[in-house]
């Protein structure tokens, strides 16, 4: 594991991935994975002890990927625009938040029907959407805390307060400072 600052990208990173953004997973010299979802899929193909991909259901992965794709296309650009407007105190913040709320309402409805976004069982969908929903909740913490999305807030808090989340979100010393790789995962 190498923690870096995007405004100080090491040459070693740019040599394996010219896109210059994170994450990047170098499995071996011939396999470099540069997208979060692809990294999740690769990792779960190696080991999926909680059956997040629903191995026994042939169509499930296709349905999950379609759901994630729709969410990424509709929510993420709106969330990023909202976050930028909020940061720079622009006049259209409430309008942009309302646009995001259309997606939040869909998730709230799904979570009113079952414990996780896709079903009663945790799936890749939950793990893939988690970082974006966490980011959204942090844009305007007070608003989100007071928002009517009780099921979504409970779902998000369930992850954020879990011991696994604390382990995954551990902060590492910047690799550019010490050039020491950090082990990640089970030892």
UniProtKB/TrEMBL annotation:
GO terms for molecular function: transferase activity. The keyword Repressor does not apply. Pfam families: GST_C (PF00043), GST_N_2 (PF13409). This is Glutathione S-transferase domain protein. It comes from the Bacteria. Keywords: Transferase. Gene3D superfamilies: 1.20.1050.10, Glutaredoxin. Residues 55-184 form the GST C-terminal domain. InterPro entries: Glutathione-S-Trfase_C-like, Glutathione-S-Trfase_C_sf, Glutathione_S-Trfase_N, GST_C, Thioredoxin-like_sf.
């Amino acid at each position: 594991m190498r923690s870096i600052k995007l405004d100080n990208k090491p040459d070693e990173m740019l040599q394996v991935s010219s896109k210059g953004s994170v994450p990047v997973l170098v499995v071996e010299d011939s396999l470099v994975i540069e997208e979060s979802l692809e990294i999740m899929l690769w990792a779960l193909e190696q080991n999926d002890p909680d059956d997040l991909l629903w191995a026994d259901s042939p169509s499930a992965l296709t349905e999950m990927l379609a759901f994630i794709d729709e969410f990424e296309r509709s929510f993420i650009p709106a969330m990023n625009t909202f976050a930028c407007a909020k940061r720079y105190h622009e006049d259209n913040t409430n309008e942009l938040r309302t646009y995001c709320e259309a997606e939040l309402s869909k998730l709230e409805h799904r979570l009113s029907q079952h414990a996780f976004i896709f079903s009663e069982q945790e799936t890749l969908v939950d793990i893939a959407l988690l970082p974006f929903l966490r980011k959204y909740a942090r844009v305007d913490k007070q608003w989100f805390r007071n928002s009517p999305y009780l099921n979504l807030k409970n779902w998000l808090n369930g992850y954020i307060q879990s011991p696994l989340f604390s382990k995954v979100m551990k902060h590492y010393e910047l690799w550019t400072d010490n050039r020491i790789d950090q082990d990640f995962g089970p030892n």
